[in-house]
Amino acid sequence: MKLRNYVKHKYKIFIGVSFKIIEAVIEILLPIGMSLMIDNGILKNDKNYILIASLMLIGLIIVAFISSITAQYYAYDISENYVKELRVDMYKKISKFSPTQYNEFTQSSLANRLTLDAYQSGNAISMSIRTASRAPFLVIGSLIAIYTIHPQFALILLISAGILLPLLVIFLRQSMKNYKEVQRKNDDLTKVVKSNLTGMRIIRAFRGEQKETTKFKVKNKDITKTMNKLNLFQLLTGPTTTIFMYTTLVIILFMAIPIANSGEFSISRLASIVTYTTQLTVALVSVMNLVMIYTRSISSNIRIRELLNMEIYEETEDKFLLPESIDSIEFENISYTYPRRSKPSVKNINLDLKKGEIIGLTGKTGSGKSTIMQMLAGYYSPQDGTILINGIPYNNFKLSDLRRKIGYVSQRAEFLKGTIYENIVMGNYKITEERVIEALKKAEAYDFVMKKPNGIYSLVEEKGTNFSGGQRQRLSLARAFANNYEVLILDDSFSALDFLTESMIRNRILTDFKDKILVLISVRKSTLLAANRIYVIDKGEIEAEGNNELLLHTSPLYGQLVED
Asked: Is-annotated flag, keyword Coiled coil (predicted)?
């Protein structure tokens, strides 16, 4: 992925750079104009010459000011549009990540890439127009101007710059190395902060504030230490350049004053040497600062490309149309291993789901029962084996069509900041208000929703934090009722509900989905009793299969799970 493709309207770059060059040329001409005014006007007491020269210099200053403002405007315009387009594509890419790809990045890392890294990348473009186009002209122009006054002085400046350059390269290399460390540690610090803010209630409930504060202090101290190293080298760059150049200026003045006294060139030329050396010093410091920005942007661009270059599943038009009715689903020797794990989470899974059947899955925590059904829901792709829908391989259908037909309700109800209505329809605005209200009633959520001032248009905070655990689960179940899936997977979706509420909701689900495929993942006996067949999962494999009565006699593990 070439990031330069995100720079739109490249003619604006040409305009911005052109105006910066005009500004730089005027800055080089001003000392010459001042010198001429001193020699031909002030020393000769020619008032007309002084007036004309003053007006011309003021005119040049006004033109330089307008050029600078125009260049700055285009620099910011190009940079902001670049960052905007880049962030949109990064966000689109992230939104299409599979759970496996999410696991390759932390949430804090994704957030920092989307915000801080995008800013650093855009800032480099802005500074390229504002500084990279101006500073070289000032450096070269100042050297040429000094050379025309006295070649020996220009040679001294070049020698000084030659000594300075290797030292600055060392500073810059260390800065780049330290900035990469800062980015990584900033991800870690953001992760700790996000985790603490999200889990603040639990932390307080178990009196863990001190422990979490200590953890934050350690991470904060670590990043501060690295930032200090980074800032040390960056702080040394400017002063080192200034000291070298002004020391060189002192040497030049020491040599130039006797020459000026001898009448070889005028005092005004000596003043021009001082001005051009100062301009050269400022330009070199600007270049060093620009290189510092480039070191940050290079590191940020690497992280941005890592994200943008991730291969994602793309929908193609050559897929089969998913039938309106899903009659059967078969798992044939399905296996899956999570990234950075050596052992498979599920292995050689064979399941047979028929329309009108209720299938139960149970097992210990971490046995792999959720992973099996998350593959059916499209969260993960099997690494071995295949899933057949109506006898056709799963990957022959569009993932978007499958997700429209297959619903997955997890134990941890997920909500976005918005309204209750928006969180239930989840972008499917064909679902009417009446259907949402009916779904809320079936999920025993109608009463507490309608008690709110705005009813179904009441606000839902991020992650649904303004609702209790039981309320969140009921809203999540209402989402399933409203979408009327062909296949519904309930993954411990009643865990926060009392037995009476669970019983009422479960009976309505059994009625609504009696002609469809329903999967119940649970360790509750009351939930599993509704299943026609139950699969007991242990260590990623099917340990036993049968109905409740059969399993109580044939599977000690099942008996232990439901009795506990």
From this structure: no
Spell 450-468 as b/e; 16+ CB within 10 A means b: eeeeebbeeebeeebeebe
Q: How confident is the model at residue 45 (pLDDT cuts 50, 70, 90)?
A: confident
In the block, which residue shows the tokens 């006699």?
553
Contact 502, 527 (CB under 8 A): yes
Residue 19 pLDDT level (bands cut at 50, 70, 90): very high
Top pLDDT among 438 and 186 is at 438
| 174 has pLDDT over 90 | no
Q: What is the DSSP string of 193-247?
A: HHHHHHTHHHHHHTT-HHHHHHHHHHHHHHHHHHHHHHHHHHHHHHHHHHHHHHH
| Phi, psi (deg, nearest 5) at residue 537 | -105, 130
Instruction: Tell me the three state secondary structure of residue 535.
Output: strand
Q: Point out the domain boundary residue: 275, 308, 341.
A: 308
Q: Do 246 and 356 belong to one domain?
A: no
Q: Please, what's the largest Cα pairwise distance for the chain?
A: 118
Are 456 and 485 members of one domain? yes
**Domain total for the chain?**
2
**Does the pLDDT at position 208 exceed 80?**
no
Which of 278, 308, 338 finishes a domain?
308
Q: Where in 242-306 does DSSP place strands (E)?
A: none
Q: Is the pLDDT score of 226 beyond 80? A: no
Cβ count near 472 (within 10 Å): 21
3-class secondary structure per residue, 300-337: HHHHHHHHHCCCCCCCCCCCECCCCCCCEEEEEEEEEC
Average pLDDT over residues 546-554: 90
Average pLDDT, the chain: 84
pLDDT (0 to 100) of residue 313: 62
Residue 55 lies in a domain: yes
Number of neighbours of residue 424 by Cβ within 10 angstroms: 28
Domain that holds residue 230: 3-308
Is residue 469 within 8 A of residue 496, CB to CB? The reply is yes
| pTM of the predicted model as reported, rounded to 2 decimal places | 0.69
What average pLDDT score do residues 78-100 get?
86
Please report, in angstroms and rounded to a whole number, the separation of the first and last CA atoms in the chain. Answer: 54
**Structure token pair of residue 552:** 């109580």
pLDDT at 316: 58
| Beta-ladder partners of 320 | 397
| Cα 178 from chain centroid (whole Å) | 21
Other Cβ atoms less than 10 A from the Cβ of 58: the count is: 10
Q: What distances in angstroms separate CA 165 from CA 131, 169, 241, 374, one per listed residue?
A: 19, 6, 9, 58
Structure confidence at residue 360 (pLDDT): 93
